[in-house]
Specification:
The chain has 342 residues and is α+β, with helices and mostly antiparallel strands. The protein has seven helices and seven strands. It has helices spanning 41-44, 47-51, 93-121, 194-198, 206-216, 244-253, 327-341, and strands at residues 182-191, 220-227, 233-240, 270-272, 286-292, 299-308, 311-320. A hairpin with a 5-residue loop joins β2 and β3. The relative contact order is 0.10. Residues 1-75 are annotated as: Disordered.
Amino acid sequence: MSEQTVTPGAEVIPEETGAPVAPEAAVAPEKAEVPEATVAPESAETPEAAAAPVAPEAPFAPAPHPVPEGAPPLPDAPPVVAVAADAAPRPPRRVLRAVARWTAAALAFGVLGTGTAFGIASLERTDVPGLATEGDGRWDYPDLSLPALPAGSPRPFSSGNPAEIHHADLRGLLLPAPAGAKPDKKLTGGWISTETFLDAYREQDRRSVAQLLKDAAPRHIAARGWTMPDGTASRIYLVRFNSTAFASRMIDDLNVGSSAGTPLARTDTTDLDPAWGSADDIENLSSFVFTEQAPFGAEHVRQAYTLAGDTMALVVHERPGKRETARIPFQQTLILQNQLLA
């Protein structure tokens, strides 16, 4: 069978039957022409026959195409091939090239961004601009090390030293000065006299403190001092007694506990520092920390006493002017000194 073309509104007829008939050629029953009636001579004499209506002539219908024996029946209408009228046209080549370029650029930026992320992750926080942690004011102390002990001597709080005696050189237990500090010419880290130690207290109280020292009879007193660029002056005194009992009694005689006890030089009203708690103490040591309350005089003073076995430590930070002495460097100094004594 030859290829057929489907035309809307036309009826397809197989080639063997003949050419298709256009819809205009088909006559609707209501529009069919009625041929003139031919009256037979006999009908003229019969009025009933003359009055009878004439049936309209049926439209032409083509004869059905014979179907060979054993063949499947033909469909009523030829299949209609669906045509995708809204199929998108192929994109032009320049659009494809532009898409390819943008895809390559996106991949390149993705690789670059991944490499940058890995690079930043491998840096320290302080090496990344904008992410460096702001300093909290700590001082830059050198690495600490304990002095050598005499042969066979135990550490002060070891199981073999129930008296809690410091056998190491007391000067080696003093905290070194931090970077940028200007050393104190009187407190150089060596031995000092009782009179030099008494300079830490108010003049009117030095006589009474001198009597306490005479009664307790300390073995050694060592001290170190320095001044930082911001004007903060630091002083550390270590006083070793003959036993833990004498050191503890000295703390009590100075009335140190809930109050700062005997006032230090250049101090007014000094109270317990609420920023220091018992959790900040190091095992086997007891610290009593105080700060001068406002209004204060020409300088602000922070101070702390520490009882460490047979040794009493006094740490003092004072800063001239109307600004308070920085809390964090003071606590840092106290903790490091306590670690050396522990």
